[in-house]
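Researcher: Good morning. I'm working through a list of sequences from a screen, and I'd like to move beyond sequence-only analysis. For each chain I'm collecting a predicted structure so we can compare shapes side by side. This is the next one on the list. No need for commentary yet; just the structure.
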Amino acid sequence: MAQAQHSQPRISPDDYLVGETTSDVRHEFVDGLVFAMAGASEGHGILKLALAVWLHGRVPPGCILFDGDMKLKVETGVDTRFYYPDLFISCGARDLKSHIRMDAILIVEILSPSTERHDRYEKLAAYKTLPSLAEYVLIDQSIPSIDVYRRTHGWSRESYGRGDAVVLESVQHSFQVAGLYKDIFQ
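Model: Good morning. Structure tokens for this chain:
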């Protein structure tokens, strides 16, 4: 995520949503502040696509896989947030005209040096408030390393490296860490 546009005053969620419909740049929205999204690196794109391809065939019935173009709304008390997770699986009623979901069961973020702290702390805290969320996955693009946070394990971090298999309980399947990174680290 890029830097906050601090010169702007806080805006309402409705004003943010109107602005997103005409903007060429995606923005995340946190408690009235708008943050422009930075472009992704090659490694980010490779990892995201590899996991999306793997997940696509394993999405539970009645659910759908979304990439970074769908907004996820999170309401934490009086604070409203809109994020663009790299990948997420959402279950519930479909609205093909909507640009927003609120019912993710699995969220995946690909870490970069500029987003890691934000993804690991701020987003984790916000995402945990989603009643539907079962798992939050953080994928490091600089080394073969994946962290999984699960509701069933009290949101404690489980770390996986090159020789490990990651079980995603939300889709009831596993994948090899080395396989996900095969096009990055030979």
